[in-house]
Amino acid sequence: MDIQTSKIELAKIILNIENTEFIEKIKNFISKEKKDFWDDLTSSEKAEIELGIKQLDNGERISYNDFLKKTS
Q1: What is the pLDDT of residue 30?
Q2: Are 23 and 17 in contact (CB under 8 A)?
Q3: Are residues 47 and 21 in the same domain?
Q4: In degrees rounded to 5, what are phi and psi of residue 61?
Q5: What is the dihedral of CA 41, 42, 48, 54, to 10 degrees?
Q6: Same domain, 41 and 72
Q7: Segments forming the whole domain that contains residue 24
Q8: Most distant CA atoms of the chain, gap in Å
């Protein structure tokens, strides 16, 4: 079964559900699945990632082994 057929079957099942609480659970589940991890990060975590990207763009990098030596 291909993905499009599965989606159509799922839509048919959902259309036949009359339980509003269950429909709400399905909506919540789907919205959580679409969520980008970036939205869950704190502003300081985002800033650290952005700084790391900027450093890499500027050629500021170290080897993995050197990193391990610094963090050990």
Answers
A1: 87
A2: yes
A3: no
A4: -145, 160
A5: 70
A6: yes
A7: 1-35
A8: 60
Average pLDDT, consecutive stretches of 10 residues, N- to C-terminus, the chain (72 residues):
90 94 92 80 94 92 87 82
φ, ψ for residue 44, nearest 5 deg? -70, -35
Alpha helix (H) ranges present in the chain? 3-15, 20-34, 43-57, 64-71
Mark residue 40 as left, alpha or beta (left: phi above 0; alpha: psi -120 to 50; beta: remaining).
Answer: alpha
The verdict on 56 and 71 lying in the same domain is: yes
Is the same domain home to 29 and 58?
no
Q: Which residues have C-beta within 8 Å of that of residue 55, sequence separation ≥ 6?
A: 61
